[in-house]
Amino acid sequence: MISLPLLMQQSELRQDSRMLWVECRIVDALRGRRRMRATAVKLPCSFWFLLLFGAGGLVLFIHLQDLSEMVQQQAPGVKLRGTARQSREALCTQDSEGVRVSPGQDQRPAVEGLTSPIPPMQFPAFQWTRHSATPGSREQDMGSLRVTKRHRKLLKTSPVVSNNSHNSSSSSSGSPDSPEESWQWHRLSHIQEARRRLMKEVCAKYKSSISRTITPHHVSRIYVEDKYKLLYCEVPKAGCSNWKRILMVLSGLASSTHEIKHDAVHYGNHLKRLDSFDRQGITQRLETYTKVLFVREPLERLVSAFRDKFENPNTYYHPVFGKPIISKYRVNASKVALRTGSGVTFQEFMQYLLDVHRPVGMDIHWEPTSQLCSPCLLDYNFIGKFETMEEEANFLLRRTGAPHNLTFPSFKDRNPKAERTSTHLTHRYFAQLSTSERQRAYDFYYMDYLMFNYSKPFKDLY
Ligand SMILES: *[C@@H]1O[C@H](CO)[C@@H](O)[C@H](O)[C@H]1NC(C)=O
Ligand SMILES: *[C@@H]1O[C@H](CO)[C@@H](O)[C@H](O)[C@H]1NC(C)=O
Ligand SMILES: *[C@@H]1O[C@H](CO)[C@@H](O)[C@H](O)[C@H]1NC(C)=O
Ligand SMILES: *[C@@H]1O[C@H](CO)[C@@H](O)[C@H](O)[C@H]1NC(C)=O
Ligand SMILES: *[C@@H]1O[C@H](CO)[C@@H](O)[C@H](O)[C@H]1NC(C)=O
Q: Which sequence ranges are marked TM in the entry (predicted)?
């Protein structure tokens, strides 16, 4: 039995080591980008990391010796980050959610793959390679005859596609209905393979060599659908409300996505999160379910979040984020603005986001996807993109054998009358910033850009 204070201490220690690692990674990333060869620069960081771990172990040992003293040192209210993640109930666009109100705490690139001093769940390194051949063999498979063979194999070996998929005459779920659909599936399968391959490459390049461990925190943003064996990691502002509608229909909580109102999606649903299961339940689902992630162009997602939370009345984001942002970054702020926290400008918001000493913590709506969903640790089977959401979501639904009349909805939940956040609109917002601010915004989301193959948003960036 490890006492609570010790756990707290450990989690803080872990936080420290994570911070260092993060800094290392950022440095690595930047250097790597400039030189295109990151191998040589990895050494110093790894070295410092090892050193820190050594020191950490020593500190832990000393603390173990002195438990009783520690109990007194640890005041109540110490952050228990990582062990008990707050706001389980929190949902993707719910307002009172996801914020870690921990002033000054920088939540930059949390790195997966860190060993935590807290006894973590040990997982084997998941290999879901059944429907992705080795990279080398892939290109050779492009011959027409082999394509069909391979295509069928792809479908058959998908973890969720049912038994009957080899029966091509059967039009039951999990099989394409027509030759056109068959080719579309083939194309989309290849896109998936390319995305997963790229992500593995990026992860391999930037991940630590330290053993991979998964804690409940890593899976706290993942929704579970047991009937169709789906795990969906919610990424706010990347179609997550509509995905929740889908999950609710799949699990029988509703018969159609159309009947689910916005509030029901976010407050009244009974979707389960993966971290609500015990260790075995988590492991088993991670190993056998289809793990799904939908991503979006990082800066568009950011602008979308800003518009949603700050350009519209909001009883949570204005007081909790708006007030500290205005009071720190606005010169001669009016009393009204300081009191309500309303009217944060995009520039002020970006100052907050890029500030190493943020006056208020991070939030899931602008936290990089590479941190929210731990893609290097969880090896997602399906990486969809918001930009091609409908096609890809429907492909996934058909492949998982979802009812044929269930298709991905196109509701725009928040502020339906407002213009959708587009590339054009995003550029208009970023035009208000300096080149150096744009560069820092890009750097902030750099891992997302790399992992999900989004191209550089502005020409003048490096
Ligand atoms: C496939 O079907 C056969 C017989 O219908 C059954 O025995 C087998 O368990 C099924 N396999 C899977 C993976 O569902
Ligand atoms: C394949 O389809 C045919 C015709 O639809 C059906 O008779 C047969 O039972 C199916 N076989 C399997 C294994 O599903
Ligand atoms: C990345 O995207 C470009 C187009 O923007 C595409 O040509 C390329 O194949 C993609 N790379 C991977 C690994 O998906
Ligand atoms: C889909 O079909 C099921 C029955 O097969 C029905 O209960 C449901 O309402 C239908 N959904 C839609 C969106 O039509
Ligand atoms: C702030 O207010 C003071 C006094 O009203 C004024 O002199 C000063 O120029 C203002 N500063 C800015 C940046 O507006």
A: 43-64
